[in-house]
Known about the structure:
It is a single chain. The chain is of the alpha+beta class and about 160 residues long. The chain has four helices and ten strands. The strands form two sheets. Strands 2-1-8-5-10-3 form a six-stranded mixed beta sheet. The chain has a four-stranded antiparallel beta sheet with strand order 4-9-6-7, with no helix packed on it. Residues about 1-20 have low confidence and may be disordered.
Amino acid sequence: MVVVLTTMVRRVEYGLTASEYAFPLRLQRLLDILEHSNRKHLSGRISFLGGSAVYTPGSAGSGIWILYKGRARLVVAGNPYSIFLNSGDVLGVPETLANASYNARLETITSSTFGCLGRSSLCLLLACDVMLRSQLIEELSRGLTLATRRAVNSM
């Protein structure tokens, strides 16, 4: 189970334009909580046909998306790669927490089913679960370190 984090790293001090990075973030605790609560926090399951956009860059980061069935990919604008996703992968965490727009395009490869967890529900879970908060901070820090290394190495 992987949470994919997309974040924007600005290197203004070097006169470079903003670059977007996508990298995996593991939040097994979140998936365990949702499973044990019978997914009561989710706003239902939503099905998409293959080739559909779940969200696009610039659209409001209204919630995190959990891929339950099918195959999808995350396409980051300005980068020549995409990240292929599988069942159990979770996306849009940083954008949702920051109440910001999505930085990438989440699109289905095959017919897929997602669950969506809204910002208020995610914040409630984080407020109630110390282990989830700790895991999230650790993984976001690891992702930021990776993005910083990529930015420095590409100079």
